[in-house]
Amino acid sequence: MSKTKYEILAERECKIYDYKPTYDEVRDFIGGYLEGITLSNGDRMYVDEEGLLKEINFLNETASVMAQREIVGYAVVIPKEHCGEDW
User: Fold this and answer.
1) CA-atom Rg of the chain in angstroms
2) pLDDT by residue (tens digit) across 61-81?
């Protein structure tokens, strides 16, 4: 089954790892300093800490729904079973 345009866009904006990535992997995808957010299901989301200050030009709707707050720029989600200590 092929992915919808929305699913492809969501994958580009919000990467979900099925392992614990390194700090550098996450930072490279995000493009800035990391801010960690614990989601309601216990998963961990990382976003650009200075996204609003940098005036990043897109609202990440997928991440915003997941975090229940406005997220701009790219986001990474690490499921709780792959989370350990923050870096």
Assistant:
1) 12
2) 888 988 999 999 999 999 999
Q: List all residues 6 or more positions away from 11 whose beta carbon is below 8 Å from its beta carbon.
A: 3
pTM: 0.82
State the Cα–Cα distance between residues 38 and 18, nearest whole angstrom.
Answer: 17
**What residue spans define the domains of the chain?**
14-82
Single-letter residue type at 78:
I
The single-letter code of the amino acid at 65 is V
Distance separating alpha carbons of residues 5 and 18, to the nearest angstrom: 22
- Which is nearest to 62 in space by CA: 25, 12, 22, 20? 12
Lowest mean pLDDT among 6-20, 25-39, 56-70: 6-20
User: What are the tokens at 84?
Assistant: 């350990």
Residues 73 and 56: beta-carbon distance below 8 Å: yes
